[in-house]
Amino acid sequence: MSPAPADPPDPEVLAAFERDSFVILRDVISPDWREQAAEAATRLLASRRTAGRDRSVDGKDGFRGIVAMDDTFLPLVADPKVLPTVVALLGSTNLYLMSSNLIYMPSIPPGAPRSIRIPSRHGWHRDMVAATRDLGIATVPRLSIKAAYFLSDITPDAGLTMFVPGSHTDTGPVTLAPGAIDPPGAITPDLGPLDVVLFENRTWHAGGLNTSGRPRLAVMMQYGYRWLAPIDDLAPGLLDRDDLTDVERQLLGRPDRNPDGSIAHEGAEAWPLREWWQHLTQAQPRF
Ligand SMILES: O=C(O)CCC(=O)C(=O)O
């Protein structure tokens, strides 16, 4: 199978990301897919499944590794409207999908007791906390890009992910005024239902406060270098499927192995994305 046609990354999108620490890509998903994905998400959440489940306080729920749980999510793996920007921002084709994360955030009525999004537990963070701890907050590099899709109604009170613009180059922790739950300058992106927002591991972000009266459903696809450890459980069954492209199989974690199972050189199995990128950009491979 060939990968879906794609356009080279838009330099203005890349510049906006470098300035703001996040960028919105417009009209990426279709209304039909969005509806199907919301149904698939609701089915998963209603199930008793515990493998990969990620429950938290105040009714937060979700799953890690959803691309292996329902085929509805597979088209996101190598979404042709997203992948070129991800490759350009990470500056490499030696990439894979570290995580596909469904996040269910219940609505909490204004004034109702809650244990998140309070001053002592405001929720602002950078991703890949272990990398930051090991390498230092000022020096940790860009390691991953998250693409966040929202499957439920988007209203100002829906609790979309919030960002501190420009924060990927900050060299210290985020600071909040006493009693505040958001740092100065924090914004909620102006997203439409078919849009996706990209951000990186160093972007300071937090789930907003959902007071909409409806649950908020989000899917976060996290791409990173193939030498980083996966966050989700491995899904070897997906790698053998013949209805996926080689690019998808790379992104789903095909290891550097020869067909006979022997060890191939490091990066060998990143050829699908490398060839795809060369074709897309006509660029000589740097990687
Ligand atoms: O649920 C959200 O909006 C934020 C999720 C988040 O912080 C994360 O994926 O790191």
Automatic annotation (TrEMBL):
> What is the superkingdom listed in this entry's lineage?
Bacteria
Q: Return the Pfam families for the record.
A: PhyH
What one GO molecular function would you report for this record? dioxygenase activity
Query: Which InterPro entries does UniProt cross-reference here?
Result: Phytyl_CoA_dOase-like (IPR008775)
Work out whether the entry's keyword set contains Oxidoreductase.
yes
Q: Which UniProt keywords apply?
A: Dioxygenase, Oxidoreductase
Protein name as catalogued: Phytanoyl-CoA dioxygenase family protein
